[in-house]
Amino acid sequence: MTIEEQILETAASLDSFTASDLQKRLDGVFSLERSRLNWYLSRLSDAGRIVRIGRGIYTAKNTKKLFEPLIGKEAVSLYGQFHKEFPEIGMCVYEGPWLFQFMHHLPSNQILYIEVEKDITETVFHHLQDQGKTVYFRPDADFIYKYVNMDRRAVFVKNLTTESPLQTIGGIKVPTLEKLLVDMYCDPDFHYLQGGEYLHIMHNARFRYAINRSRLLRYARRRNVADIIQSIFDNSEYDID
User: Fold this and answer.
1) Same domain, yes or no: 16 and 135
2) How does residue 237 score in pLDDT terms, banded at 50, 70 and 90?
3) What is the pLDDT of residue 56?
4) Does a structural domain hold residue 16?
5) Are residues 113 and 154 in the same domain?
6) What is the pLDDT of residues 20-45, one digit of tens each?
């Protein structure tokens, strides 16, 4: 049995544990320096094999569910249309109502989002225009404030960041929760979720779903916000007023 496997087996016998708790249990099996044990705990936590549930407190009994949103018929149709036309192009779809569960305040958002590789965003935009859909091309905060009624269904066409973490549900590519969390912090069309609201979003997401910290920070580095996302994530274990 490897050291990692021994740590996991010991951790699984405890409802929750600290590094000190674990070290005492492991001392009867083999000697492991505290700094090395901390390294293993960090590695296992990043991989999602144990979960940090408090400051320095972990559990191997992860009851958090994966983020697997229900995809509406319109989103399925939109994805199918462009995936059929551009099968080799990276793309994903998602829906504004998916975000409601994380918010403290509940502004309306009925937007359907499609992200595609930069080279074809304008092509997708014009295709949707020609179909008579209400569609906007990479709208920023000022444009949305002036011209977009987010109570009504519309489509936002956006660039898909390279190496974005995506998942497949029912044959449809959608963002992982880690991608959505970073995008909500960065993207101008999510301006209304930024600031104090974002702290609640991260807090609620972390305690409701399993989040892969390594994936989150890897994508945050792609968006040049790794340090701030890491800080917000690591402090999101505490209650927010």
Assistant:
1) no
2) low
3) 83
4) yes
5) yes
6) 988 888 887 777 889 999 998 888 88
In a domain, 114, yes or no: yes
Domain membership of residue 21 as a residue range: 3-59
The pairs formed by 85-88 with CB atoms below 8 angstroms and a separation of 24 or more are 86/116, 86/120
For residue 66, is it within any domain?
no
pTM: 0.77
pLDDT tens readout for residues 119-135: 999 999 999 999 999 99
Assess contact for 163 and 215: CB atoms under 8 A: no
| Predicted confidence (pLDDT) at residue 47 exceeds the cutoff of 80 | no
Q: How far apart are CA 238 and CA 241, in angstroms?
A: 10
Q: What is the CATH number of the domain that holds 33?
A: 1.10.10.10
Q: Is the pLDDT of residue 72 over 70?
A: yes
**Does any domain span residue 67?**
no
